[in-house]
Write a structure and sequence with these properties.
seven-stranded mixed beta sheet; 2 domains; Aspartate Aminotransferase, domain 2; three-stranded antiparallel beta sheet
Length: 342
């Protein structure tokens, strides 16, 4: 993100309009780097209201708008792009959940001036992120990869160890205790961008050998797409009721989601499933900006979605046994709720 802003000529103190439904890791980095951040509430369908976007741009003299394609589900950018162009606002697409999603045959992230990706959310790699520039600053669009510079072999060893722990069932990797340990570890080991990473470092970072191999294998990427979509469709078969309903029952063509979201009216499903060894989650959950969390009257949709959207994994490594287990536990959870209501 920082490299993209610099290459697009956006200077510190510029005003950046972010959806309030966002993780604080992005917000804190922008603020620490001297940018002014303002929030806009999203709509209940994960889209942005164009009129509200225009009002905020004019009210706060916005220089940059960041639009998020949540969970791999594309955001409608047609009218938003027109309004940004009319007002000279830079448009950046956050495609961190959406690396393999396409729309009308075009890969997501090609509409705005730039797009950022988090490839490690889709591929089994240690690489951090990727930046794509769509604005013709040079003779042609430029792709810039940035790695988190972790050792690939250490990453693979850690994944194998994690797999062993999961298979042995010695520890529930999704328990609240383990979750707190992970968050503490990531906070302590996280990189403070301000003053420690130069944009030139990001530009010079090269993708790992794993990433090069995966990106050059179209059959592998297509297999991921097919498997993820199949997993998503399997889990939609658990159906919907007044307690738990599939948020998006039918995917658009070429939509490759990171998760399958369910609207959990009880707000209890995530913890219930995690205590039973299922990697259910919320987003941004612990990373919802405190400014948003404490102003629910101003950002009601973002706060409600953070509480009520239960996310289940659909990644390519899931097997039929994993899917059947999740399906069974969802049925059990519904029975649990009904019995408590009597």
């Amino acid at each position: 993100m920082l490299a993209g802003l610099k290459l697009l000529g956006v200077r510190p103190k510029a005003v950046i309009l972010l959806p309030a439904y966002i993780c604080n890791s992005l917000v804190s980095v922008l603020r620490e780097s001297g940018f002014r951040v303002v929030f806009i509430d999203i709509e209940p369908n994960l889209q942005l209201d164009v009129d509200k976007v225009v009002s905020n741009i004019e009210l706060y003299d916005v220089n940059v708008l960041v639009v998020v394609h949540y969970f791999g589900i594309s955001c409608d950018l047609h009218e938003i792009l027109i309004q940004c162009r009319l007002r000279g606002v830079t448009l950046i697409e956050d495609c961190c959940h959406s690396f393999l999603t396409s729309e009308d045959g075009v890969s997501i992230g090609n509409v705005g001036d730039a797009a950022i990706y988090s490839l490690r959310k889709t591929l089994p790699i240690s690489d951090g992120g990727a930046l794509q520039l769509n604005k013709p600053l040079l003779d042609a669009p430029v792709e810039v990869f940035s790695s988190n510079k972790s050792n690939t072999f250490v990453y693979l060893a850690m994944r194998c160890f994690e797999r062993f722990i999961a298979k042995s069932r010695l520890v529930n990797l999704y328990s609240p205790f383990v979750g707190r340990l992970k968050r503490k570890f990531f906070v302590q080991s996280g990189t403070n961008v301000q003053g420690s990473i130069r944009t030139s470092d990001l530009l010079e970072s090269m993708p790992s050998f794993q990433l090069k191999r995966y990106l050059g294998n179209q059959i592998y990427l297509q297999n991921i797409k097919s498997k993820v979509i199949s997993n998503y469709q399997f889990l939609t078969k658990v159906g919907s009721d007044d307690m738990l309903e599939a948020f998006i029952p039918i995917l658009k063509p070429d939509c490759v989601p990171q998760w399958i979201p369910f609207l959990d009216h009880s707000e209890k499903a995530v913890n219930w499933l995690r205590n039973r060894g299922v990697g259910a989650s919320r987003w941004p959950w612990h990373e919802l900006p405190s400014e948003v969390k404490t102003l629910e009257d101003k950002y009601p949709n973002s706060c409600e979605l953070d509480r009520k959207l239960m996310l289940l994994p659909v990644h390519q490594s899931l097997k039929i046994d994993d899917l059947e287990k999740m399906s069974f536990l969802i049925s059990e959870f519904r029975c649990h709720l009904r019995s408590n209501q009597k």
